[in-house]
Amino acid sequence: MTSLEPMTRTADGLGTAELPPAIAPFDLKAYLKERQATVETALDRALPMAYPETVYDAMRYSLLAGGKRLRPILCLAACELVGGTQAQALPTACALEMIHTMSLIHDDLPSMDNDDYRRGKLTNHKVYGESVAILAGDGLLAYAFEYVATATEGVSADRVLRAIAILGKAVGAAGLVGGQVVDLASEGNPDTTLETLEYIHLHKTAALLEACVTTGATLGGASDRVVEQLGQYARAIGLAFQIIDDILDITSTTEVLGKSAGKDLDAQKATYPSLLGLEESRDRARQLIDQAKAQLEEFGDAAAPLSALADYIVARQH
Ligand code: GRG
User: Fold this and answer.
1) For the chain: N or C, fewer Cβ within 10 A?
2) The pTM is what?
3) What is the CB < 6 Å shell around ligand 1?
4) What is the DSSP string of 182-217?
């Protein structure tokens, strides 16, 4: 040992003992950068150009338009947490981004939120027209399921089937579609309650984030108990994610968000800040993140990525 190395006293006070190695703090920035690159490459390969070019071009335009890639990253992280490999979950991770992208394309349509910008670019219907945008969304949704079924390797057929069932439930009327229907019906209704708002957020946003984590864990070989526990983590971060989205809609700018800011006020939408105020909304988001992280305790350091991703959700600026 050199004089620069730390010395500790042994029980007899004479010798020296090795200190346990210091655990480096988890580097979320580097982790996100590396995972985002993996996901970008996988998405590009998953959906090559084909005939008819118009619809493939429209599908690729939105799928490869950037975005945080939070959903695929959550799926990969959950799979690895339970002892699976990235490769086992990568096709499903891509499928989740395809589903998310299709929901954004349809959400932006004139008959829904009528938005001109998404991910800092013109929305799909602004570039390709409404009919092609609808079909590009449909194409992405159908392909997501085909891709999980045909591209997943190294996972039992039973677990792939379970993952497909989770995806189906998350996107249908029990998930995103249901959340969107209640959201549209509540627009301009000053009597929207916190209970209705929570239903909207849990279905429109949290359901897909939950599916990311539960499909990842299922493909990685987790027990039903662990899948359910990680599902609870995901529901809590999903709700917090949407609360932060509502806050950013008021406090941020179109430039930073890459989509129109202030839309909720314009559409007279009930949001967490409109019902609870900004500070209480922030507190609620923080509480949810604490609840989410409590679900990870039994996994120890192995859960560092999911824990850091939960913190990132409340700290994010766009
Ligand atoms: C799924 C069949 C089917 C239909 C879609 C339109 C619709 C039904 C649902 C709307 C779902 C929706 C747009 C929810 C909002 C979720 C949300 C907060 C999106 C923003 O996610 P980020 O911030 O975006 O992760 P990036 O661009 O980073 O991926």
Assistant:
1) N
2) 0.91
3) 67-68, 70, 100, 103-104, 106-107, 112, 119, 141, 171, 176-177, 180, 204-205, 242, 245
4) HHHHHTT-TT--HHHHHHHHIIIIIHHHHHHHHHHH
